[in-house]
Amino acid sequence: MGFDVLDASAFYAGIPFASSQKHHTTPQVFDEIRHIKAGYGGIEALLDVGRLIVMEPPRDMVLRVQQTVKKAGETGKLSDADISVIALCAEHSGSLVSDDYAVSNIAKIMGLRVVPVMSAGTRRLKQWIRYCPSCKRKLQSEARCSVCGGEARRYPKFVG
Ligand SMILES: [Zn+2]
User: Fold this and answer.
1) Are residues 147 and 92 in the same domain?
2) Ligand 1 centre and the CA of 113: distance in Å?
């Protein structure tokens, strides 16, 4: 298996638990998913057994991703965490597991392989959970958070 990199949407989908493969992510994404308790208390256990590896991407690669984001006109749509996982993936010529449209788009522009969350896992989709990435509130169908104006994101919830 290759070098698999997970963004936040992959964590919310439970991908680290859906296979016994080794996964990589960045400290920024790890920070983000630690604050949203999506019912996965076992993430620290994955760290312990070496199935989840947290790595910092090199600074020059982060700058390259930021330039690509700017050129693509996607400034403001990607968080520092999003940019960090794309950079880590690019540095190691890996595969990016993501269901985030903006993240996938930039990764594809940079010639990276993107694996949609739905095909990386094996479980059946139950519903999509929408949330604000800035203040972590759960949202209904609104496009933006009514408290801080953050653009809604979603993650899939699975049966079983
Ligand atoms: Zn908000």
Assistant:
1) no
2) 31
Residues 57, 75, single domain; the answer is yes
Going from the Cα of 147 to the center of ligand 1, the distance in angstroms, rounded, reads 5
Q: Which residue segment(s) compose the domain that 153 sits in? A: 125-158
Amino acid at the residue 89: C
Ligand 1 centre distance from Cα of residue 129 (Å): 15
Same domain assignment for residues 77 and 147: no
Tens-place pLDDT, residues 30-45: 988 876 554 455 677 7
The number of distinct structural domains making up the chain is 2
Q: How far is the CA of 135 from the centre of ligand 1 (A)?
A: 4
Beta strands per DSSP E along the chain: 4-6, 23-25, 52-54, 95-97, 113-115, 125-131, 138-139, 153-158
Q: How many A from CA of 131 to the centre of ligand 1?
A: 8
From the CA of 146, how far away is ligand 1's center (Å)?
7
Q: What is the pLDDT of residues 53-108, one digit of tens each?
A: 999 999 999 999 999 999 999 988 999 999 999 999 999 999 999 988 899 999 99
Question: φ and ψ at 48, to 5 degrees?
Answer: -60, -40
